[in-house]
Amino acid sequence: MAIQIRNLSVRYGAHQALRDVSVDLPVGKITAVIGPSGCGKTTFLKCLNRLIDLQEGVQVSGRVLVDNEDIYAPQADLLALRKKIGFLPQRPFPLPMSIYDNITFAPRIHRLSEAELLSHINGLTTAVAQSGNGEVKPIGRHLDEKTKWNLLVENYLRLAGLWEELRGRLHEPAARLSVGQQQRLALARALAIEPSVILADEPTSALDPISARLIEGQFKLLKDKYTLAVVTHILRQARRIADHVLFFYMGELVESAPAEQFFNHPQHQRTAAYLSGEIS
Amino acid sequence: MNRRNEEKLAIGLMRLSLYGVVLILAAIMAVIVVKGFSAMSWSMITQTPKGGFYLGKEGGVANAIVGSIYLAGGATFLSLLISVPLAFALQKEYSSGRLTYYSRLALDVLWGTPSIVYGAFGFIIMMMIGLRSSLLAGIITLALLVTPIMTRAMEEIIRMAPQELKETACALGLTRLESSSTVILRQTIGGLLTAVMLAFSRAIGDAASILFTAGFSDHMPGSLLDPVASLPLAVFFQISTPIVEVQQRAYASALILFIIVLLLSLLSRWIYLKFSQNVIK
Fold first, then answer.
1. ipTM of the complex as predicted
2. A-interface mutation test, from B98, B168, B180, most A Cβ less than 10 A away
3. For residue A188, is it within any domain?
């Protein structure tokens, strides 16, 4: 799903957090959003699903087109928007319920119909097989509702690379998981609203290196089906996963370029300075 | 004084105040137990007063125990109906800063208002609508007394829920109400139930607000519209008599009240642990 940003500016009171940003996020790619802390990259990300609305005293101007609809238009449907966009926070916060319920919670709230449930399961089974996270046994025609939900949970946990670790613990409180597992659960939970876009705000900053690599691996597996935007302050992570890079500096979008070009032939002096570690 | 000794002194003072509090609590308990033990008996908690009105030398205070539980239980329930929506309404997701600032201020003033004022207020209202001293009037007055306590406690607990959790709920496409009634409620349920127990403990221990409004009686509470006995007032009336045996019964009544509050505190801690296993810290 295409996201086009036009003349986006954000102010917190007197502080200008973002200044006149215009850029498109490429579909089916991982876009890394990088820059030193306080450069506006998280603010930028939170503008894309209007999570920015939760901040106090914030003023947003400009347009963000998601699927050709301006999400800042007065008639914009925020609930529908957020259903299209999955979000991974900096520190994972499992919902205060079991692992199983963490996955089924949002689909139940969105009142997923039986038919949708079945079609999701079918689509997922294919996706899981393609992603190399094991194979779910093919499903019969007549399933009771509980079995369908079980399959849904299994599929999403497989997509997030968690199934093998957690299959016997589904009804334990999610709070008991390690932080690395919690973040992958947050990914599974975000996938369960069947979004087209995934936004991740420094998703590995609270994780150990091994869990971080697992998350990065999942992103690469998922990128064919989704548009991903990942905020990171780790340059090496951006190099590992990004197809496209946005570099922010002091609230301005300095450079937007394919990863290869960005890292090897930066067009702007400030990008080159940041890449070489002169500014941070 | 060097920095090490400074710290030692400060820690010593903190410990001293800790022991001080425990000591005072133990002293109160000791007085009640020693003075009330001789009058304590099985009939004290199973029988209504015998041998003349509520100052009776025989029988027990079963009517006051049941009356107190009715009064506090009714008031807590009534207050719960007001406090939960009020506590959520005070969150920044639902109301503007100015409105919540003044609402909190009002609740804090009400929290500090002496309970006799609530009693007098309840009494005036009763006079206006022609209601006499009764269980119902007592429940309503006590509900007014504990609502600021319950609301402020709940509101703080809800506000402490992590901002990231609210963002997560929002990002999943939940409405504010869905977020509050599912995610935030589950996150805070242990704390909210503690607030309920706090309110109940406050309600069951208050005497002044029910002095005119609930009245007193020597039999088991029957109707919402009849006067009802309560433990704090049983203590008050019994201890005001010149008869030593009846005064001892006051301490026994206080001991019963004390044990009820103690059990409630333990129960609320157990509830907190029981309902907090899903909580994200």
1. 0.85
2. B168
3. no
